[in-house]
Amino acid sequence: MRKPVALAVAAFSSLGYALFGAPDPGDETFPRPEIAVELLKALDETLVADESATVDDLRAAIDESLGLLAEPSPLGERLQQLRDLADAGELRSGIVSVRESLAFEPVKEGDMPKDFPTFTPTGVVEVKEYPAYRRAEGKGFFTLFRHITLRRIAMTVPVEVQMPKGERGRMADRSMAFLYGDRSLGEPGRQGQVTVVDVSEKTVVALGVRGESTAASTR
Predict the structure, then answer these.
(1) What are 129's strand-pairing partners?
(2) DSSP annotation of 208
(3) Does pLDDT of 109 surpass 60?
(4) pLDDT: which is higher, 11 or 103
């Protein structure tokens, strides 16, 4: 049995806007994760909007949601905190906030590589299977962007960022990689400042996060 490994992924939405302009609101979106659909159904919008719903009614919806989460997660911790509330109004307001987070869909600035699973909802931890893929590794966004542009290779999402631990447990310098849409594109090997490598299929533990990529949020 393969041991799950962590996959570090960062999305550079603001940088993408600067390079290519703001995405068209009519652009297609990624498939909504099945767990997000199930959680939104459990935290029923009609129930939350019903002011006659009791604390017990709302807690029952939270219990159903907690039962759907297979792994401990920030979202699970948030739901448990809400469950301890005794005021129906505060409970309702908290569930609305959770629903808004679950309904969030990242802007589709590019296609995912072939057979990649869709994104992980904010606050959810899940184990995912990634197929084998090809990636271009290098230092810095523009080095990689120039590499794929010269070879007429479409940019995909996500951009992969690895931050291995260095001495004393501190994170070492980042290395960045662009993922090819298909393993049939290009050839592996050193190409200028970029190295193209084939990555075997793997099991990863994924945490859905939302917001600006900072040193604090990464830790």
Answers:
(1) 203
(2) B
(3) yes
(4) 103
